């Protein structure tokens, strides 16, 4: 750990390289475990109460007698399609258990017992029904205060259970029989209607004739369709021939090998037409042969041209006759095609009518077959129903009748064990809730964990108060309370040997968050411990509202800090009010001008401060008291003042502390709690450091945090924390437990 060498400010105390004054340990210990050690009585109390209540309840209960019976489910009966009852096995056992536990069956069983054994008095019973695991056995258990009635009731319950099942089956069979009879009658009527409709559909002609007519019509319709296709093809061929002839007449005569040959279509293309056509071709060929040798007007060429013209006229005649014949043939084919189309439409209608009649007859026939099948099935079910009614369909048998009712063990030990566990769990739960909602410091580890940035200067054990005065006896050099005395010495050493920068703290302010945390006890005993070393120590009671340190020291409280800091002339010759007014005026003038004072004002201010120091020295001389302890001086609080905050902010407070710094080596100021009044936050910034006291199992972490934050906000320096009133037996308290090192025990050991 890093250490610092501090220049020696106080000749009486050598400076040593010293680490941090205290490092809290044991922070990893569970807070709940520590809380449990202190409040162990709570789970013990809840456990004891639970045990007493259960024991009282069990012992007050009258003895109970138990009778048992068992039923065996032999299996699931698979009935035929006319069966009346079938149930899934996974739901069967739950259904039967609920039926046995129903109020209806229990009422019937009670009435049965009253009828068969009227001498038995009805008493309330506890009925439990369960299925044995991995079996098909149902166990019934009845318990009650009367053994005879318990056994009789269980026997009657089983009998009524079987009787009720038979009644349900009988009622279900009767309902099914009636339903089947009505359905069979309706189906018989429907069968007769469908049977009557079938002959009516076949009354005109027989089914065979209709089928023959349908086949013939279909065949003839197919032939007509083929004829229609041939005529359509012939019509298309005639149209092509006509178009070809029209093109031939408009232009040159088609070549013999080109165009469409219509000789096979038109009979006018006879042998004469062909011979004439051949003659024209021959004449043209002869003319073409003579044309290269003869002139166009040559008689032979002209004669050939004339013969060609006569032959072409003959061909025109043949062409005209051929066109007329083609038109006549086309007209004839179109008439035939129209007649075939009409015949096709007529026969198609005949085929549709015949097919529709055949479909109607087939539909009626299927309806008759379906109605007949339903009728036969219902008839078979009705015939098998009477047989099933007479069969025993019970799948549950009585495996064991009700046993003689025997006394039921109370089970006191088991109930007490469960009650004890429940009480213990309740106590631990309450303890955990209380621990979670309690933020008070229970150990020094919690204090150190809560404020990791602050040093823990020491821990003070809890000591008894004196009965006569109700105050804690002050520490002395030979105190037999060795743990308390050593804790004060430890706190003193932590302050003297504290590793810090600059000047060591000289003006120490001791405070706490709220009252009753032991700050005054720590302050006065710390001052005593410092005085035991030979240092000049001034103890100041800075609690101007409830200060009472003078009572512990046995000194008077006529005048004190309140009169010392007041602006009024309390002592003879005081001019404090005027002097402080002058200091305020000059200081405010410097603040308003935002600059230093002029040389004249600075000189005047220095003279005024010197006057205030002189006045303060006179007042201190009149208020400071000498105690019975060497080197320890005391200034009481004086008369209680409601304006303590204003007094601590006045120039007289600075003058007082300035005077005391020069005269004493340590000034210990007791103060009011931080959260009780604004006095301490106003005074703390003027001191060298604050010692913050937290009391074990009393100080709330939330309040302590708020108080320290307020001190930091006022620019006060917190030197460290003191954990007060810690139990000497606490596991976190590892110091000063060895009594053989103190007092008489040490001398006897030597």
What key phrases describe this protein's structure?
elongated; five-stranded antiparallel sheet; 10% strand; alpha/beta; disordered N terminus
Describe this structure in words.
This protein has 750 residues and is an alpha/beta fold. 56% of the residues lie in helices and 10% in strands. It has helices at residues 31-38, 41-60, 89-100, 103-116, 147-201, 207-250, 271-290, 299-390, 412-437, 444-450, 482-496, 519-531, 549-553, 561-565, 576-593, 599-623, 644-648, 651-663, 679-683, 701-713, 743-749, and strands at 65-73, 126-131, 137-144, 396-400, 406-407, 456-461, 507-512, 537-541, 625-626, 632-635, 666-670, 689-695, 718-726. The strands form two sheets. An eight-stranded mixed sheet has the order 6-13-12-7-11-8-10-9, sandwiched between helices. Strands 1, 2, 3, 4 and 5 form a five-stranded antiparallel sheet that branches. Mean pLDDT is 75; it is low at 1-29, 76-87 and 250-269.
Give a short overview.
The chain is of the alpha/beta class and 750 residues long. The chain contains 21 helices and 13 strands.
Coarse structural class:
alpha/beta
Radius of gyration: 66 Å
Shape: elongated
Low-confidence segments, given as residue ranges, are 1-29, 76-87, 250-269
In terms of DSSP E residues, the strand content is 5-15%
Please tell me the overall pLDDT. Answer: 75
Q: Number of helical segments?
A: 21
Care to count the β-strands? 13
Q: Termini separation (Å)?
A: 37 Å
